[in-house]
Amino acid sequence: MGDLEQALGSPAAGRDWVVRVRNALIQVDADFRMHVEVTEGPRGLYEQVLADAPRLAGRVRRLTDEHRTLSVTVGELLARSEKAGDIVDTAELRAAGTDLLARLARHRQAGADLLYEAYESDVGGET
User: Are 81 and 21 a contacting pair, CB within 8 Å?
Assistant: First the structure.
């Protein structure tokens, strides 16, 4: 996410800027795919959370739903950044990329809150 933030914040000087943003998006895509695998995959984090704290099923479902929408958004931004020549609307790409960063940050915060609820808070009655 840091590379994407830096790329988006740099001067939008033609095709070099678009390439830099695209490369950062490729990394975000790879990192996010890994995140989804670690959380949703077999014996993943969400499976463990549900086993240990079934009361959090709704929050796990919301995070899982966000995975799908965030993956689509990353794919759309990658497609926009692939346009040939200088026809990419840099202002629009910057705005959409910045929005993606904010959504990813909120998702990360919600995941941290989920783990806190599952393992650090004492609600009583669960082991």
Answer: yes
The structural domain count of the chain equals: 1
Does some domain include residue 86? yes
pTM of the model: 0.88
User: Is 15 a domain residue?
Assistant: yes
* Count of CB atoms situated within 10 Å of the CB of 83: 12
Write the pLDDT tens digit of every residue in 34-44. Answer: 999 999 999 99
Closest-CA residue to 63 (of 38, 29, 28): 38
As a whole number of angstroms, the distance between CA 19 and CA 53 comes to: 44
Q: Is residue 108 part of a domain?
A: yes
Cβ atoms of residues 27 and 74 within 8 Å: no
Q: Are 101 and 94 a contacting pair, CB within 8 Å?
A: no
Range of the structural domain that residue 64 is part of: 2-119
Asked, for residue 125, whether it belongs to a domain, the answer is no
- Concatenated DSSP letters of 57-115: HHHHHHHHHHHHHHHHHHHHHHHHHT-STT-S-HHHHHHHHHHHHHHHHHHHHHHHHHH
